């Protein structure tokens, strides 16, 4: 179950680095029938920080985000929100955002703004996601990358204390993907708890404050990128991922399905961790 308790009624939790946790999971478990997705996951999602969830395809990243949001009920365990009591405590950027194609960019933002109590400055929000010059363009005429930026704007609209973003850089060129992460980083700097599920490990290493690596059964490793790199005596987050998901990676044995080695692709760090089957929850 998901509990929504304001900060006035529930004691604050603290993350490992002393930051205030705005969302806490305890013993979080999810299965579809007899197929386990993740088991006994304990997380503290910090306010004012970006938490990145990474792992092979089908491992449960999307299901975890939807469980945090309350869109999916856990099989066991709890999700507790302890942030401020606001109209929209959590924003969401899905893997495949859909907007009304006949609306302009400004009309789209105004429509979603009408659904929240907080005042929204449409022009300021569009400037933040680099869509102000395209404000009068219809959604049907936007590129995939521009629609993704519009989805980022929709997700943070009304400044929810928490925003969950599922593959925010999916399908974007490197420059636009970096724009998306930079926008989310600015929101985190302003106090928002940003949770991203991503395959783009180079951007995760560059921007995330905390990384959670999922493997079959639950959390394989968690910590700040620099701490994980030091803990695994690794060159970068890619090497950490390889070792955490496949402990035998150092002796040259085959890596886990969905986690290509650094030399397997022409672009190492910017290559998405992909290739595994998706689970029944639609995870990537």
What is the topological layout?
Blueprint lengths: L1 E3 L8 E2 L5 E13 L2 E12 L2 E6 L6 H9 L6 E6 L8 E4 L11 H9 L8 H7 L15 H13 L5 E5 L7 H16 L3 E5 L3 H7 L2 E6 L2 E6 L1 H7 L5 H9 L39
Parallel strand pairs: 1-6, 5-9, 5-10, 7-8, 8-9
Antiparallel strand pairs: 2-3, 3-4, 3-6, 10-11
Helix pairs in contact: 4-5
What report would you give on this structure?
Helices cover about 25% and strands about 25% of the residues. It is an alpha/beta fold. It has 2 domains: about 1-90 and about 160-165 and about 175-180 and about 190-284, Rossmann fold (3-Layer(aba) Sandwich), CATH 3.40.50; about 95-160, no CATH class. Strands 7-8-9-5-10-11 form a 6-stranded mixed β-sheet, sandwiched between helices. Strands 1, 2, 3, 4 and 6 form a 5-stranded mixed β-sheet that branches. Strand 2 (about 15) and strand 3 form a beta hairpin. Helix 4 runs parallel beside helix 5 (about 175-190). The model is unreliable at about 5-10 and about 250-280 (pLDDT under 50).
């Amino acid at each position: 179950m998901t509990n929504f308790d304001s900060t006035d009624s529930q004691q604050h939790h603290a993350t490992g680095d002393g930051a205030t946790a705005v969302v806490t999971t305890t013993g979080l478990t999810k299965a579809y029938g007899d197929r386990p997705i993740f088991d006994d996951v304990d997380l503290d999602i910090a306010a004012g920080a970006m938490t990145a969830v990474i792992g092979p395809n089908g491992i449960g990243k999307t299901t975890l985000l939807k469980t945090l949001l309350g869109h999916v009920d856990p099989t066991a365990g709890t999700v507790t929100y302890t942030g401020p009591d606001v109209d929209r405590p959590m924003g969401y950027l899905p893997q495949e955002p859909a907007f009304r194609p006949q609306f302009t960019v400004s009309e789209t933002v105004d429509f979603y703004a009408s659904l929240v109590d907080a005042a929204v400055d449409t022009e300021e929000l569009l400037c933040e996601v680099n869509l102000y010059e395209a404000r009068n363009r219809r959604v049907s005429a936007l590129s995939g990358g521009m629609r993704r930026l519009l989805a980022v704007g929709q997700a943070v609209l009304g400044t929810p204390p928490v925003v969950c973003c599922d593959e925010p850089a999916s399908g974007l060129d490197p420059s636009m993907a970096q724009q998306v992460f930079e926008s989310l980083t600015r929101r985190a700097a302003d106090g928002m708890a940003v949770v991203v599920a991503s395959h783009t490990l180079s951007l995760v290493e560059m921007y995330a404050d905390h990384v959670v690596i999922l493997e079959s059964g639950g959390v394989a490793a968690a910590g700040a990128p620099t701490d994980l790199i030091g803990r695994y005596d690794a060159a970068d987050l890619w090497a950490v991922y390889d070792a955490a998901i496949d402990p035998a990676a150092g002796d040259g044995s085959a890596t886990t399905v969905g986690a290509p080695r650094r030399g397997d692709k022409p672009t190492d760090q910017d290559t998405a961790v992909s290739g595994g089957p998706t689970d029944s929850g639609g995870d990537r």
